Amino acid sequence: MTGSSSPSQLRRTLGVGDAVIIGLGSMVGAGIFAALAPAAHAAGSGLLLGLAVAALVAYCNAMSSARLAALYPASGGTYVYGRERLGEFWGYLAGWSFVVGKTASCAAMALTVGAYIWPGQAHAVAVAAVVALTAVNYGGVQKSAWLTRAIVAVVLAVLACVVVVCLGSGESYAGRLDVGASGGVGGVLQAAGLLFFAFAGYARIATLGEEVRDPARTIPRAIPLALGIALAVYVCVAVAVLSVLGAEALGDAGAPLADAVRAAGAPGLAPVVRVGAAVAALGSLLALILGVSRTTLAMARDRHLPGGLAAVHPRFQVPHRAELAVGAVVAVLAATVDVRGAIGFSSFGVLAYYAVANVSAWTLDSKPTSRVVPAVGLLGCVVLAFSLPGVSVVAGAGVLVVGVVAYGVQRWVVERSGGRGR
Which residues have a Cβ under 8 Å from the Cβ of 418 and sit 6 or more positions away? Predict the structure, then answer.
C-alpha cells in the first residue's frame, strides 16, 4: 500500500491531544450552559446525585466504546460496532439513533449561540453559525481540531473565573450544597438523563476513528481522559453555582452561570460569561456536526442512506457531501425548532445509541467480570431514557419506530429486486 489515502477513505491526522480536545469541545459546551438549569429544576437538592448517576452511566458507556473503537477504528462509532457484533439491523438502529439525536443537539447548540449573542434574532444567528462551522469542517478535520482547541481554552478560562468568583464571594454558603432528593427518585433520574446530554461528547472521538492515528492506542486513552476532565469541570461549576444560587433558583435561571456571578457580587463578569457560553456552544456545534457527518458517511457506504453521501473530497479528505447535507438539515431545524425540547429528545436518541454499544461490548468477552461494565451501562441507558420528560420519550420512541419501518421497507425492496443491500 502507498501512504496516500484511497478516494473513499479518510486521512489519519488526529493524535491523543486532538481527540481529547474534540471530545471536550462537545461536552463542556453542551453541558454547563444548556443542561444544568433544567436538571436542577427536575432534581432539586438531588442535582449532584443526578450528576453522579449520569457520570456513572457515561463512564460505562465510555469504557464499552473505547474497547470497541480499538477493534473497529472506522468512521461511524456504534453504527459500525453494532453491525459487526450484533448484525446489520442493530448497527443501523444505532446509526439512526445517533444521526437523529445528534442532529437535534446541533440545533440546540446553534440556538444557544443565538440566544447568548443576539436574543432577539436567535434563529438567524443560529443559522449563520451552522453555515460558518460547516464551512470550517469542510476545510478538513485538522482545521476543526485547531479551532476547537482555541474554543476549549476560552471556555475553561471563563468557567474557572465563575468558580473562583462564586466560591470566593460572601454569598457562597455550604448549606446550599446539602444533598437530598427534594425532586424524588424520579427527579434525580430525570436530571441524570438530561445531564447525560452533557457527557455524550466523547462519542465524537469514536465516530472519528478513521481519522485518528494509531487508533488502538489513541482512542482508549482519549475517551476516558476527555470524560474525566469534563466531569471535574462539571463538579466544580455545579458546586460553585449551587453554593450561591441554591437548587431552586438554579432550576429557574435562564442563564444560570451569569445569574450566579451577579448574585456573587460580580455583575461586570456576566457579559464575559455570556460570551463564554456562546463560544462553548460554538465548540459543541463544531464537534457535533463533525460526528454526525462521519456517521452519515458510514451509513451511506452501506446504502442505508443515499450512496452519494459517502463521497470523500479528493483534496480536503473529508466527507464533503455528508457535511453539506448535515449542515443544511441543521440550518433548517435551527430556523424553526425550540431549544429546550431538543435536549430531552437528543438524550433519548443518544441513550438508545449507547444501549447498542453496551450490548456490542457484552459480546467481546464471556468472562463475567468483563461484562459488568457493559451490563451496568445498558441498564443505565434504559432507565435514564425512560426517566426523561414524557414528551421526549414519546417523540424519541416515535422517531426510532420510523427508522425501523424505513429499514424494513428498504430490506423488502432489496429482497424483491434480488439485491444484497450493499
Answer: none
- Would you say residue 31 has pLDDT above 90? no
How far, in Å, CA of 141 to CA of 128, rounded? 20
Whether the CB-CB separation of 14 and 294 falls below 8 Å is answered with no
Q: Residue range 295-311: average pLDDT?
A: 83
- Most confident of the following: 147-151, 240-244, 305-309, 314-318: 240-244
* Beta bridge partners of residue 30, listed in sequence order: none
Q: Is residue 83 a contact partner of residue 357, using CB atoms and an 8 Å limit?
A: no
Look-up of cell digits 481529547? 20
* Average pLDDT taken over every residue of the chain: 83
What is the rounded distance in angstroms from the CA atom of residue 278 to the CA atom of residue 273? 9
Instruction: Specify whether the CB–CB gap between 47 and 250 falls below 8 A.
Output: yes
Exposed / middle / buried, residue 284 (Cβ in 10 Å: 0-12, 13-18, 19+): buried
Cβ(285)–Cβ(130) below 8 Å: yes
On whether the CB atoms of residues 284 and 290 are closer than 8 A, the answer is no
The SS3 of residue 212 is: strand
d(CA 139, CA 124): 23
Output the DSSP codes for 164-187: HHHHHSTT--GGGG----TTHHHH
Place of cell 478560562: 157
First to last CA, the chain: 25
Within its chain, how far is the Cα of 410 from the centroid? 29
Cell of 311: 463521497
Residue 6 DSSP symbol: P
Query: Backbone dihedral region of 44: left (phi > 0), alpha (psi from -120 to 50 degrees) or beta?
Result: left
Instruction: For residue 370, give the DSSP letter.
Output: G
Instruction: Give dist(CA 54, CA 292) in Å, integer.
Output: 22
pLDDT score, position 245: 92
Backbone angles phi, psi at 212, to 5 degrees: -100, 135
